[in-house]
Automatic annotation (TrEMBL):
Keywords: Oxidoreductase. This is NAD(P)-dependent dehydrogenase (Short-subunit alcohol dehydrogenase family). PANTHER family: OXIDOREDUCTASE, SHORT-CHAIN DEHYDROGENASE/REDUCTASE FAMILY (AFU_ORTHOLOGUE AFUA_5G02870) (PTHR43639), SHORT-CHAIN DEHYDROGENASE_REDUCTASE FAMILY PROTEIN (PTHR43639:SF1). NCBIfam families: PRK07856.1 (NF005893). It comes from the Bacteria.
């Protein structure tokens, strides 16, 4: 029997919640019955919808602490409370560390580490005053725990985000639970920019033990779990969501060697 998670009436803020993984997170919370507010620098052509629910939107550059404070204040003005924050806004284009400018690296760290901290601080100030407290979920990456060539500052920022998650969980307990998701490769509307055409996307998916890239809504389901009462004793954790990870390169190499040895001379 399927166990359905419900968050009826909960007020949820999803940063960067209008496309890609963020849109999947937004859809999943809407299906769970939550009232979802999304934010980004640019308003989408249409709100993210799922089932009978539709998200609302507030423009915000989460790298600016003043805009973040105004964002949270507006959520409270509209809804009277804030139960869950999903720090999803982030990302980085490919750039080798030696060739990218110092300003480039600063922007990547600001978006992927300092911005989540600013949003979390503003949310925590509200949640600490609520009888029910609140939950913060930080969307991190497997790049936090492995080499991240071509996105070195991104990987370093996400490693910092994982540590931040653990630290804030201690500082803000027991009123506020703080957890993270270390996310692997996800199929979004922009997958072709990273992996090429459909054949390229399928080839990359084949390197994952589960045989495919994640769907954004699957990441959303994990965020809903961490925000739900079922995870009431989970705080300071980073849940790895990567389909089993990556098959180690040495295995492919060793298999080739075994094949060569078996071939007749």
């Amino acid at each position: 029997m399927a166990l359905e998670l419900r968050l009826d009436g909960a007020v949820v803020l999803v940063t960067g919640g209008v496309r890609g993984v963020g849109a999947g997170v937004t859809r999943t919370f809407l299906r769970a019955g939550a009232e979802v507010v999304t934010c980004a620098r640019t308003e989408p052509e249409r709100p993210v919808c799922a089932g009978d629910g539709a998200s609302t939107f507030i423009s915000c550059d989460v790298r600016d602490p003043k805009e973040v404070d105004a964002l949270v204040e507006e959520v409270i003005r509209r809804h009277g409370r804030l139960d869950v924050v999903v720090n999803n806004a982030g990302g980085a284009p490919y750039a080798e560390a030696a060739n990218a400018s110092p300003r480039f690296h600063e922007k990547i760290v600001a978006l992927n580490l300092l911005a989540p901290l600013a949003v979390a601080r503003a949310a925590n100030a509200v949640m600490q005053e609520q009888e029910s407290g609140g939950v913060i979920v930080n969307i991190s990456s497997v790049s936090a725990t492995r080499p991240s060539p071509g996105t070195a500052s991104y990987g370093a920022a996400k490693a910092g985000l994982d540590n931040l998650t653990a630290s804030l969980a201690v500082e803000w307990a027991p009123k506020v639970r703080v957890n993270g998701l270390d996310v692997g490769m996800v199929r979004t509307e922009h997958s072709h920019l990273h992996y090429g055409d459909e054949a390229g996307i399928e080839a990359v998916g084949a390197t994952v033990p589960l045989g495919r890239l994640a769907d954004p809504d699957e990441i959303g389901a994990c965020a809903v779990f961490l925000a739900s009462p079922l995870a009431s004793y989970v705080s300071g954790a980073c849940l790895t969501v990567h389909g089993g990870g990556e098959v180690p390169a040495f295995l492919a190499a060793s298999n080739s060697l075994v094949k060569e040895r078996k071939e007749p001379v």
